[in-house]
Amino acid sequence: VGPGASVPVEVLFKPAEEKCYNFNVVLAIKRREKPVMLNVKGEGYKIHTMLVLEEPGQGDRELHPGVKEALDFGNLQVQERRGFNLRLSSPSFNRKQANGLTTTGEEMPNVRYDFVWQIRTASGNIVQPQPNAPPYLTITPMHGVATQDEETPIRIEYAPPEGHSLDGTVLRMLIPSGPGDSSYTLRLAGQARRPLLEFSTTSHNFGHCFVKPGGVAGSLEPQSAVPSNTPFERLDLVVSNRDIIDCWLATSFQRTPYLDVQLMSSMVEAGGSLTVPIIFTPRDFVEYREQIEFIINDTTKTSVSVRGSGCQLQLEMAAMAMQNVDFGVTTGNQSASRSVKVVNRSKRLVEFFLEDADGQLSDRCVTWSPTRPISLKPKEQAVIELYFAPSFHVAPFKLPVLANCGFGQEVHLFNVSGTCDTAELRL
């Protein structure tokens, strides 16, 4: 070393044991009476970790690094969510000092270390966790930094949106700065399947349904039951349980003025079935569409789509001239007959029968045929034969003939008029 010069000395500290070191390095220098002493201090530190799994109802289970541990999520329904909590920490460890003493936890250095999770599927592929892709795992946090003084909470959740099996999936926690055996391995198990609940239909068209006269733009309040004088269409939805376990069935649909799903949350027994009445009562001459959501076991959702429209009841005479049927003047025991045609101009089938208000026509010897109920498809016609056969004096009259179409709906079809004169003999 020349006058006024310096030579760098590099000291490499590579501890072989987990303890504190304190020693002197002697530098021998020629023509110097005493050697130069270099005091070296250091601490050998190994990352110690502890991973604890919280098992509900069973307490905590400590997981061991380098050992394949089992984590079973059990059997789930599709859309169900199940998870486990873990705690990562660094336990205290007494280190030996060079003088034979030991260090306490308070004297240990505050070491921080990284950790990261790795997911390997049953096929051996390493994947990133995605909630909407197999294996439907969510790990929070996926990676992070742990410290010696605090526990790091970790949450692993399994939420499959479809039928799926976790068997063969492996989770690994890697600690890059730790020793070779510091990784934790979890062999996962569990499966999800859909409840075997079968709906008789998932789509239904009510078609055209009559709107009650005066019901257009009427009350918007939903009705608890269908009144007997209100036209409606009904679908009996049959829900059958093909599973080996009971299933809970509910609906999120809220009753509207025109649609009522008559379902109280119910249990459908294994092998059994449940009938759900769906009542369609249109309030206007428009088309209606709805999606009815059913919830199975509070997790799985199934929708049934329904549609229908309101239409007007149009039962009319085939010609304007037929709206007044006149038998004219007859004499006693002389009969008269007339024929008229009724046409259905509605968008759906009409069932009706002719009605004599208060029996006034029968009192005047007016009858008709057919007397049974009549069904007419759209644009279809029916012939009505009318008969007037009085045997006594009948004063001139003009009375209506009504068509009773059910649900309290009556249509005035035509009027009947006539009179009967008889000779009166006196002795």
Describe the structure.
With 427 residues, the protein is mainly β. 1% of the residues lie in helices and 50% in strands. The protein is built from one helix and 32 strands. The strands form seven sheets. Strands 5, 7, 8, 10, 12, 13 and 14 form a seven-stranded mixed sheet that branches. Strands 4-3-6-11-9 form a five-stranded antiparallel sheet, with no helix packed on it. Strands 16-23-22-18-20 form a five-stranded mixed sheet, with no helix packed on it. A hairpin with a 5-residue loop joins strand 7 and strand 8. The radius of gyration is 45 Å and the shape is rod-shaped. The model is unreliable at 217-227 (pLDDT under 50). InterPro entries: Hydin-like, Ig-like_fold. It comes from Alexandrium monilatum. This is Abnormal spindle-like microcephaly-associated protein ASH domain-containing protein.
Query: In the CATH scheme, what's the topology name of the largest domain?
Result: Immunoglobulin-like
Fraction in beta strands: over 45%
Give the biggest beta sheet: 7 strands, mixed
SS-derived structural category: mainly beta
Count of helical stretches: 1
Mean pLDDT: 87
Radius of gyration based on Cα positions: 45 Å
CATH architect. name of the largest domain:
Sandwich
Into which percent range does the helicity of residues fall?
A: under 10%
Number of individual domains: 3
Write out the CATH superfamily name of the largest domain. Answer: Immunoglobulins
Low-confidence stretches: 217-227
How widely separated are the two ends?
174 Å
The top level CATH class name of the largest domain? Mainly Beta
Number of E strands:
32
Taken from the alpha-carbon principal axes, the silhouette is rod-shaped
